[in-house]
Amino acid sequence: MHGFCERILDGLADLAACDLVCVLLINSDGRVASCAARNLDESLKRSFLLRCAGQRIHHSDEAGLALDAVLQRCRQPFARVSLPLSGESGALRGVVMLARTGQPRFRASEREILNLVHPHLENYLRAGLRCELCEALQERNSAAAAAVSSLTARERQVVGLIRDGVHTKEIASYLAICPSTVYRHVSNIFRKLDVRSRGELVALLSGRLTGCLEAQSPVPHTTIWS
Predict the structure, then answer these.
(1) What CATH number has the domain spanning 2-134?
(2) Is the distance from CB of 144 to CB of 209 less than 8 angstroms?
(3) CB 179: neighbour CB atoms within 10 A?
(4) Which of 24, 37, 51, 190 lies 20 to 30 Å from 11, alpha-carbon distance?
(5) Which positions ≥6 away from 36 have C-beta within 8 Å?
(6) Domain limits, CATH 1.10.10.10, in the chain
(7) pLDDT below 50 — which residues of the chain?
(8) CA-to-CA distance for 45 and 23, rounded, in angstroms?
(9) Is the pTM here over 0.70, yes or no?
């Protein structure tokens, strides 16, 4: 998402007469994910990130105060305005901060322009987060598909039954094996697919991986599947 920060900087560069534009992206747990700044030297940027790294940011004022503390080192009067950017859930996922030194506060007309731009920046961020999530899911599905292909035919049968909510004793009865053998298959499956529970396994197998299992390991129809 660092490229996203840079694009916001480019878009805001001519919007307001500012000495500084800073974009901070925040993970869902409140920790800083990325930061980009225009006209903020590296030493001040490092100081700003160090201040942010020591806390979880859940409100734009927390990021703004951290930037204020850094700008005060310049020993010049300054004015700052912050635009909080929320994600789909409403939680804070970014902050855009604009500052100017040696000048009066932002005029009402300037704030009005920023208020008009604000929802567009927020929508842009949400679109970027959705794309990032889709890419992560695609990578995970690709890796999971490769892992599924390493399963034996019997393990794929067990996985298919687990996916449909069949319990260990029913799996053993259906496949005519003892429950301890089912447990051994499940242990091997967890290891190969890098999951720790049946819930994680089912989540991993959602979507296109379901078709992969059914195509590779068909099993006869039985009332267990109904």
Answers:
(1) 3.30.450.40
(2) yes
(3) 14
(4) 51
(5) 2, 5, 6, 8, 9, 22, 23
(6) 149-225
(7) 208-226
(8) 11
(9) no
Phi, psi of 71, rounded to the nearest 5 degrees: -65, -30
- In SS3 terms, 23-58 reads as EEEECCCCCEEEEEEECCCHHHHHHHHHHHHCCCCC
User: Cβ(205)–Cβ(159) under 8 Å?
Assistant: yes
Give the pLDDT confidence score for residue 134 in this predicted structure.
61
pLDDT score at 210 = 45
Instruction: Name 22's Cβ contacts closer than 8 Å, sequence gap at least 6.
Output: 35, 36, 37, 38, 40, 48, 67, 96, 97, 98, 99
Q: For residues 130 and 141, give the distance between their C-alpha atoms in angstroms, rounded to a whole number.
A: 16
Sign of torsion over alpha carbons 198, 163, 177, 168:
positive
Inter-residue contact 79 to 99 (CB < 8 Å): yes
Neighbouring C-beta atoms of residue 108, cutoff 10 Å? 8
Assigned CATH class of 149-225: mainly alpha
pLDDT of residue 172: 92
Query: At a CB cut-off of 8 Å and minimum separation 6, what does 46 contact?
Result: none
Residue matched to tokens 């993970």 = 27
Residue-wise pLDDT tens digits, 75-84 = 778 888 888 8
* Neighbour order of strands in the sheet with 78-86: 32-38, 20-26, 92-101, 78-86
Q: What pLDDT does residue 216 have?
A: 41
